[in-house]
Design brief:
Keywords: NAD, Oxidoreductase. This protein is an alpha/beta fold. It is built from 13 helices and nine strands. Helix 4 links the parallel strand 4 and strand 5. The protein is globular, with a radius of gyration of 20 Å. The protein binds nicotinamide-adenine-dinucleotide.
């Protein structure tokens, strides 16, 4: 039944996000070739994923090759490093980068992949580990419509709200915009809950009350709960959000626009990192103002 839609897919980067996303592609009846610099998760190999020795080997076997690695240099090395994806590509194959990286670098990577007779889509995601596991990710794409339509059935196995925003780089630009909104929202929720807690109100009940009104947001629901319950295991690490705000601030400088609240929130992320919190979930951003105020939202 699935046969006619079955694709040969490569997946590189099997971390918090990549492992469940790759799992959905496999469960969708596709042939899956995987590579990570770390050993592949047993859940994937047990389900039939074929482990390759390099990105080049993945690219030789698969027609659509997905990357989900941390940052711009990791994508560059996965694509163009020794035994990287580019070394195994042949005409007509498609590279899909789902990591969150620099929009400018993305345009360059796409040009180099196009020069090999292959196509490129940038397709970063939002929705976190929860969305990756539940296959409900939001996917923001940049590339040609023709290529997007070829990859769409795979996107539909991993996500729900899937949009082709524009050409290469536009998916990554959308993701940077997303990260600005998320960071500033986390900071807003932190300030509101800290204020309420210091005033003597129960922050858990304040959150509950606000969730019925105009101030509600996914951040109040998910990150607000983490702040109250003090569950800061990642999730989405502070160091990855620092990377994304850095892309926002570098872009703002290059384009000549001002993002004052993004800059302040990045400084608060830096304060968290300076206090040993780089590896914690970004909801731990609340601890920056907790330190400054000498008061915790909850114990
Ligand atoms: P992660 O660190 O858990 O996983 C990244 C994986 O890539 C690791 O297993 C690592 O070994 C592997 N890797 C690194 N360099 C490699 C290379 N050159 N070749 C092969 N494998 C390589 O990170 P993550 O949380 O899964 O995030 C991945 C991307 O998704 C990041 O760009 C992040 O910003 C983005 N993202 C993460 C979340 C989240 O909630 N975690 C949400 C949305 C977007």
């Amino acid at each position: 039944m699935q046969e006619k839609n079955m694709a040969k897919v490569g997946f590189i980067g099997l971390g918090i996000m990549g492992a469940p996303m790759a799992g959905h592609i496999l469960a969708g009846g596709n042939e899956l070739y995987v590579y990570d610099i770390k050993p592949a998760p047993a859940a994937l190999t047990d389900a039939g994923a074929k482990v390759c020795a390099s990105g080049a080997e993945v690219a030789k076997n698969a027609d659509i090759i997905i990357t989900m690695v941390p940052d711009t240099p990791h994508v560059e090395s996965a694509l163009f490093g020794e035994n990287g994806i580019a070394a195994g590509l042949s005409k007509g194959k498609i590279v899909v980068d789902m990591s969150s990286i620099s929009p400018m670098a993305t345009k360059e990577f796409a040009k180099k992949i196009n020069a090999l007779g292959c196509e490129y889509i940038d397709a970063p995601v939002s929705g976190g580990e929860v969305g990756a596991k539940a296959a409900t990710l939001t996917i923001m794409c940049g590339g040609s419509e023709e290529t997007f339509n070829k990859v769409k059935p795979l996107f539909e196995l991993m996500g729900k709200n899937i949009t082709l925003v524009g050409g290469n780089g536009d998916g990554q630009t959308t993701k940077v915009a997303n990260q600005i909104i998320v960071a500033l929202n986390i900071q807003a929720v932190s300030e509101a809950l800290l204020f309420a807690s210091k005033a003597g109100a129960d922050p858990a009940k304040v959150r509950q009350a606000l969730m019925g009104g105009f101030a509600n947001s996914r951040i109040l629901e998910v990150h607000g709960e983490r702040m109250v319950k003090r569950t800061f295991n990642p999730g989405f690490r502070i160091e990855l959000h620092q990377k994304d705000l850095n892309l926002a601030l570098q872009g703002a400088k290059a384009m000549g626009v001002s993002l004052p609240n993004t800059a302040t929130t990045q400084e608060l992320m830096n304060a968290c990192a300076a206090n040993g919190m780089s590896g914690l979930d970004h909801s731990a951003l609340c601890q920056a103002i907790e330190l400054m105020s000498n008061h915790k939202i909850a114990q």
